[in-house]
Batch of 2 targets.
Target 1
Amino acid sequence: MPSFSTIVRHGLPATWVVLGLLSVLSGCGGEDPAADADPESGPAVADVDNSAGQTGSREASSPPPRPWIEPLESAVDHLDHARLDEADKQLQAAERLLADAGDGDDKAADNNRLESLKKQLASAREAEVERLAEEKTRKRAERLAEAKELQESGKLDEATAALDSVLSMAPTTGQRGTVRELKDAIETHRAARRRLGSWMKMLASKQRSEVRAAQNQLRRDPDTAIPLLLEAVRSQDRPLLVRNTLEMLRRLRRPDVAVPAMIGVLSRADQQKSWPDAVREISQLKVPGAGPLLLPLLLKANSAAQKTAVLAALAEIPDPPADTLTALLTLLHADGAELAPALRAAFTAMSRHGQDDLVALRGLPADIDDATADLLAKLPERLTQVAARKGDEHAAAAAAAKMLAVLIGASEPAVLQGVKVASSVGQLEDSSAAAVVDGKWDAEDLKTGWRHSLAKPGTIILDLGSEKTVAAVRVWNYNGVGQRDRGWKEVDVFVSNSRTDLTPEASGVIPRAPGANDTPDFSIQLPVDQVRGRYVILKAKSLWAPSNFAGLSEVQVIGY
């Protein structure tokens, strides 16, 4: 191979020289690029050109996107988000595009999809119409209830405005009738204000004579007075007026009106000062109706004070719900201000429903879960512990726990000692009334029993010495020889802190005595619902065989 300098010396053009060198250098590799190529594939350039041609062919064969797909997909999204008007617009656009397109399988499938979406839209619109109708109905009902509450609260102008708004919402025929009735009631209320307004003002007096005068006047026209009383009982800043109004409602002997009004006071936190008055009037009313309202109120009460007030009312009513005990279990197992009234409320409910057997769960709801059953099983021990507590701060809870423990058999009452005869009616000289507490019941001796004349009904008053809890009274009838029919037959038992017999706590029939010595026990035990009091009064209602006298042999008071 000639050197570069030699080539230049021979006078060859420089360009030729460079080209020649490049040619030589490319051949020095010893390999032919074309040798490794597939002989059937052709030159490399041809391969590139062919590839480009194939790509272009594929692109040319792909169908263009169907223009109605996008609005269909958009309609689906709008339907999913309840944008019904937007969905309708997109479906209409898709329908126009499908109508302008030619026939084909794809079009047929998309038409089916369009029809399906249109049905979905129609169903959604029907549901929306129903929802709006229901919402309007609900709003009308709410406004009607609001108007009634405003009317009862004495906000007559606001009540009228609420009724007018109901009329503007296309009310039903029944609702129009209700509106008319409420408007009539409002006008009656306004007239009552004008006529009885002065007596209502006097009802808030501190002078009892004025209060009684106002109450007497209002009782003459109770139907007219009731709306004014219901308005007054809601007063937030006039507790004296509320107290006298609650009393007035009780005296009207309209429990259907009085009970909800009293419990309404307990439900309002802004009337806390009036809660004790509401509890007192509920307890004095002593009619059914409060129980089903009080227990739900207890479960949603927000404060310990409100719970305590509701529990105090639950303890005094005649109709506590059967599930009161299970609802109170958590409170019974916790210490706090609610414990004592919760124990008393539980006692009332358990006494009313015969729930004294916690093992058999008699009288309790059938659907008791394991947690509730566990608390019931632990209740006797808990009551025993609370009843044993000492100190003034525990006195109320200890006394209530003792009552409940006695009721379920976890504690036993005993014969009270130191009982004396306070007085009797018609006592005969040779048979003192004091003999009924001398401890002798099986002797025939006249001096060991009490005889009285029949001029007045036989009555004897026993003094326990101080206030105690009476669980039962045990009576032995008169046991004179051959005079077994001279005893009492029917008897009423009263327990009180005074010597006045009001409402009997127990009644029963006393068996005849055998009229002989050394006989089996012939007494009868009359259960008393664990009533607190200092005096126990026994009054004869009838005799076995009325003659010239009657009497009793012995009386024991059982309690703690």
Target 2
Amino acid sequence: MNQMKEVSSGEMLSLCKRRGFIYPAYEIYGGIAGLYDYGPLGTALKGNIADLWRRTYVLQEGFVEIDGDTIGPEAVFKASGHVDNFADLSVTCKACGESFRADHLVKGLHPNPDSLSIEELQGLLRANGVRCPCGGEFADVEEFNLMFKTKIGPGAGRTGYLRPETAQSIFVNYINLYRHCRERLPFGCIQVGRGYRNEISPRQGVIRLREFNMMEAELFVDPEDKSWPRYGGIKDRKVRLVPNTDGVEVEMGIGEAVDRGIIGNETLAYFIWVTYDFLTAVGIDPARLRFRQHLKAEMAHYASDCWDAEALISFGWTEIVGIADRGCWDLSQHMRFSKADLTAFKRFDEPKEVERDAIRPKFGAIGPRFKGAAGDIKRQMEAMDASAIHDGLVTVIVDGTPVDLDADQYDVVRVREKVNGVRVVPHVIEPSHGLDRILYSCLEHAYAERDGYVTLRLRPAVAPIKVGVFPLMAKDGMEEVAKALDLALREEGIATYYDDSGSIGRRYARMDEVGTPWCVTVDYDTLEKGDVTIRDRDTAEQARVPADDVVAWVKDRLKHGLVC
């Protein structure tokens, strides 16, 4: 039986490189910190994890999926706050010129370095005499923006950035998605893709990267109703929580956490459970998984509640998923900067009589100015209320272009009217998954040893190779039978590896080391009786199965998530 074993990051990364999971990028040129390539098995593993995540959100939860651009114009990231605020605090050595994240240098000197201001970090560094590894003195702490800046187009071009997250592609497509989803809340959208952050001092292998893979879901909900229809089915499920009140880890039912006000609302709680269910399905050890609530000091200014799913790996407790209630921040910001209507219509059960401050155009002003377009402007303005006024200006769209109207061109009047509903800015619940971190955590949690040999106990659903196919010897017709069986499995979409090199024991060991759940061996009994040996990775037990039944045997176990 395989014995689960804690593995060092060095051992794990060495195995990953040797067996084709993860390679240091540009290694023949000396490599670049924070950049890694996925080898053949790593690419397959990454794809399998992403496919399972898609099935969770698209098929199980009914989300839609988009694939947005990775380059965006500056205006998008000004609106999102990334241009002005997406920064880490950096210090540079006066002697050698090496830069470091300031908060990394004071770990052990403060319980939560991420929460410290520039001044606090500066004071802590000086008070403790922290110096560069070379012995040099550090310059003052300063902000370093993590965005990769570029130009869109030739010449001066337009300033653009590589996206630091996939979420903004979803937010700027809100209108299209809202229409696609029949203009009803709630609805959700996912995206799997690359993000880019120019990290100051990348470290910890694939845990902190400059180019990374994300799986993000954005759920648009009624700001006044954050219940969830399927919440009742999971509220008694227990997870390990670290609330921000006392920082003490507890095992608690999802529903109890909501009832006690620890988790902000039902929808957030439901997707904490969905996250737990997904992570354990791909191979994260439940005993090494917890959900830590952000401290008030580290909570994003727009978030009302945020939880990190953390896995215990060789680097310590590591965030692999963030689940946040982002409120209406994102859509409100993009509405303010783009002037587009990013609201949703919330229909009442029965019409209500309401009063509002309505905007009315002054026809004597807009008629001569806009002529044939005046009627359309009138309709736009009559749909607005006083909340649409910013700095005394009302923005309308004329021939696709935003135009600002000052107070000489409109009046604000109090009106009473019957309405069927109101327009609201949806709130966003966001589960954001770090694919690279999840993949690496799965590898560490799958690591085991038997008789001095490594076994990766990867879940069959995500294992890059499902079946190793071997002829006992490449002679007497065994090779032909094995190749035919290998082809039959692949034609059914089952990833295989054909191997006729070396002893059967060495072939088993190679497959164990890359996480292959089963190995099928064609031998002399196969030629005589028509059955093959199937070996289980985790137990090393063997069974005889008719060769004609192997495909169905494997498909059944993949369907039910069985290893043996």
